[in-house]
Amino acid sequence: LSGPVWIDGASGDRIEPTDRGLTLGDGVFDTLVAFGGVPFAGERHLARLVAQAAAIGMSVAPDHIRSGWAAVLAEARPAPAILRTTVTRGVAARGLWPVESPRPTLIVAASPWSRQLLGAPVRLVTSTIRRNPASPSARLKALGYLDHVLAAREAAEKGADDALFLTPAGRVACSTIANIFALRADRLSTPPESDGVMPGVMRALVLKKAASLGLAAGERSLALADLIAADAVFLTNSVRFLAPVVALDGAALANRGGAVVAALQQAVLAEAERECGVAPEGKLRPAETDAA
Amino acid sequence: LSGPVWIDGASGDRIEPTDRGLTLGDGVFDTLVAFGGVPFAGERHLARLVAQAAAIGMSVAPDHIRSGWAAVLAEARPAPAILRTTVTRGVAARGLWPVESPRPTLIVAASPWSRQLLGAPVRLVTSTIRRNPASPSARLKALGYLDHVLAAREAAEKGADDALFLTPAGRVACSTIANIFALRADRLSTPPESDGVMPGVMRALVLKKAASLGLAAGERSLALADLIAADAVFLTNSVRFLAPVVALDGAALANRGGAVVAALQQAVLAEAERECGVAPEGKLRPAETDAA
User: Fold this and answer.
1) What tens-digit pLDDT sequence spans chain B (292 residues)?
2) 3-state secondary structure of A77
3) How close is the nearest chain A Cα to the Cα of B214, in Å?
């Protein structure tokens, strides 16, 4: 079911049933893709994971996480690999009170990445489950994903690919696995964290690339009407990069902005190629082609 | 850190790092206390756990859970034991989509129960984190307890014993580990599930006992003002039974209804003694005293 796994803070390659990551969802995680054995945007992912662990009162050494990545990539490389890094509060007595001498559990698990994950079009349905901006978990990549699991099941039952979460006030938040963007003319908008949104690494990369492409890119609250009126709507995450939303609740969405979305996708892919030395699409760089 | 553990659906006494209980908080759990080797209100707990598993699309055989309880209690008995039963979606490939042939992981873990857990007074503080009634997880004993962990930490930092969750609309929901009740004259109220409340087994027992004691007991939405105006406020859960709330956000709460709360506690304790054959307080029944 999966590739290499590295576990620290646990005995062997299994997890204790008293680990608070399991008993209480007490932990955070990160997902990235490594190309040619090099994590793409690794330092951004690392910084966010360390910051999110700190936000829930856990201290994790960046070098420790780098060691886990290196151990798993030594087995997985050079094939493109999805790395999931999980940090839990570790083993503790029952109860949800602060742990006196916490020893976090750190897990790095690899699974294969395929270029087919890039850019697959998405039919979205609005979930009946609302996102809670008054929950810190909404802005963290926290382990408790049950609402996401249930919303994904609801979407699958409706023949859709993913579900869209709104806030109780009806603002657009995110999908079960991705941030969302709306393009209208030269204005690219994604909901702010205060709308219950996790600050995705791909979201940050897209905002940066969009500005460099001359778009007025920024965080702005969105309503469903903004998605319907948009020239293009797309999702972002670190595994799928940019994925166009082609339908919302059964109605087709516009694709007038498709060329801009494709340009953004190319800009991010080019950055991955520069950083990792291997193109995510599988093309080798000229230098490597020569060497091969 | 803990007592006997029974695990089914996992290899040995550890959990796979790809178990969706850990990776996605994809599961539900139950906590009960067994006295003299007999789970108190075991059938109620079992029915709720099976129903909550079904609500998230998992099928669990009640007899299977009973086997786990029996295996753990065979080691723990006759000492009073807290049994935590966890049901997860089991091991799966990454992603949060429905699992094709799920094999749930079932964990039963025992830890010691002490009579000191009974009736300890609670100083509550209102959490800055709000409860989300539009999340199905709010009505489930789901694994994702991070908001609870963070609220408990906030309460500990403020010198309190537990935190009170309100809904975004300002309605009283529950504490991090308990349901809440307010008594005013002969009217006993606890928030309805639609206010984002988990249907606690002890909550149900207290509603039943209250009716038999002549109280007008039922589900009613509560505001903070209702707690402040109450004759008594108390928390319920299956480990601590009834616990009086003595202060809210630093201000003392009334205890005019203390005798009624004590009567309810006694009624529940008497039911535990009848059902389990051993008094939770540690007194033996006359017949057993004779036999000893």
Assistant:
1) 457 788 885 556 788 999 999 999 999 999 999 999 999 999 999 999 999 999 999 999 999 999 999 999 998 868 999 999 999 999 998 888 888 878 899 999 999 999 999 989 999 999 999 999 999 999 999 999 999 999 999 999 999 999 999 999 999 999 999 999 999 999 999 999 999 999 999 999 999 999 999 999 999 999 999 999 999 999 999 999 999 999 999 999 999 999 999 999 999 999 999 999 998 886 544 444 333 3
2) coil
3) 35
Supply the ipTM of this predicted assembly: 0.92
Ramachandran class of B159: left when φ > 0, alpha when ψ lies in -120 to 50, beta otherwise: left
Q: How far is B287 from chain A, CA to nearest CA, in Å?
A: 34
Distance of residue B129 Cα from the nearest chain A Cα, in angstroms:
5
CB contact (8 A) between residue B24 and residue A135: no
Interface test with A, best of B28, B31, B135, B195 (most A CBs within 10 A): B135
Cα dihedral A138, A143, A147, A149 sign: positive
Distances B3 to A22, A91, B83, B87, B141 between C-alpha atoms, Å = 17, 14, 10, 18, 22
By CA distance, what is B85's nearest residue in A?
A23
Quick one: how far is CA A42 from the chain centroid? 13
Chain B hits for A239, Cβ within 8 Å: none
The helix (run of H) or strand (run of E) holding residue B31 is strand B27-35
- Which chain A positions have a beta carbon within 8 Å of B136's beta carbon? 129, 146-147, 150
Dist CA B255 CA B238 (whole Å)? 22
Decide if B145 and A93 are in contact by the 8 Å CB cutoff: no
Tell me, what DSSP letter sits at residue B19?
B
Nearest CA among B49, B6, B46 for reference residue B28:
B49
Name the pTM for this structure.
0.93
Confirm if A178 and A191 have CB atoms less than 8 A apart. Answer: no
Query: Alpha carbon of B13 to those of A11, A149, A235, B9: distances in Å?
Result: 11, 26, 40, 10
The two structure tokens encoding residue B69: 């309880």
Minimal-distance CA residue of chain A relative to B29: A23
